[in-house]
Amino acid sequence: MKRRIAVVLILLAAGVAAYQYWPDRTTSGDLTLYGNVDIREVQLGFRVAGRLETMNFEEGDAVSAGAVLASLDSQPMRDGVSLAEARVAEAQARLALLRAGSRSQEIEQARARVSEAEAALENAENEYTRQRDLTAKRLSSRSLLDSTLAQRDQASARLAASREALALAVEGARGEDIAAAEAALAGAMAQRDQALTQLEDTRLVAPNDGVILTRVREPGSILQAGAPVYTLSLLETVYVRAYVDEPHLGKVIPGSQVIVRTDSSSRDYIGRVGFVSPRAEFTPKTVETPELRTDLVYRLRIVIPEADEGLRQGMPVTIIVPSA
After folding, report:
1. Full residue range of the structural domain in which residue 265 is found
2. Cβ-count burial 4-22 (b if 16+ within 10 Å, e if not)
């Protein structure tokens, strides 16, 4: 009997010590909710297709924003850039040619053709006049007069064409031709920029700080555009997904501060209510609440700005909403 009383006393003493060592950190009137950690993940892949050349990180590695995670064989893209740059150079040369206009030698050559055509017309005019006088005196035939008339008209037409050619040489290219050449150059430059972008896209860069969750492919794989290569768990921002029933909805106000606790750590995480769903829904089966699962609840999201590795994806947590 004495031994039984001693055991009971020892258990009571241990209970008192445990109560003093692990006090209840909640206050009467505080609202207690239950939820799960929701860390955002990103499926990372290349925007272009190609052969996977390097994979620089393993699962569990921490990476910083801007780090090169993987790369494709870039030789096809470099060839595309070279071709695009050659087309830009060709378009630039064409535009420069049109803007420069005719060379002085070409203009002088056009003037020489005009002088030659003027001389030919003058000779044809004189021959026609002579044949006309001879025909009037019945010393030449009518057919010969008609032939000289045709030669004079042809010489006149050649002179007009030579003068137009000289005017074009002096004036240079038309504005429409220059505008078309400028548009062709702009198109060539856009193709070059596109080729440079595709070359840059052969490097897979981490968009944010995070931890590699999965390494999906290995070097040598042939990838289609958008095929997943890594899964990245983002370090910021960490959220908690929880649910509140309608009677307590008024205690959960967007922007209000809450306390988040886990079973694996004694640390209290400070969070803020960032979102409360305007639509009621049935409690998901994965949520642990004291109430019946068929009760209608409202989903809310809690933002934890200063999270650490103690919060992991899917971890159940307890949320304390302090009373006003």
Report:
1. 25-39+235-321
2. eeeeeeeeeeeeeeeeeee
Task: Please tell me whether residues 189 and 239 are part of one structural domain.
Answer: no
Angle at 155 between CA 150 and CA 159, to 5 degrees: 150
Structure tokens at 253: 């106000």
As a whole number of angstroms, the distance between CA 281 and CA 241 comes to 14
Asked if residue 230 belongs to a domain, the reply is no
DSSP code for 133: H
Phi, psi of 121 (to 5 degrees): -65, -40
Q: Using a cut of 0.90, tell me whether the model's pTM lies above it.
A: no
**Cβ pair 231, 44 in contact under 8 A:** yes
Instruction: Give the count of alpha carbons within 13 A of 206, CB side only.
Output: 24
Tell me what pLDDT residue 315 has. Answer: 87
Mean pLDDT of 124-135: 78
Quote the strand ranges of 264-306, DSSP E. 269-282, 296-304
Supply the pLDDT for residue 15: 45
Same domain, 180 and 241: no
Sequence-distant (6+) residues with CB within 8 A of 139 are none
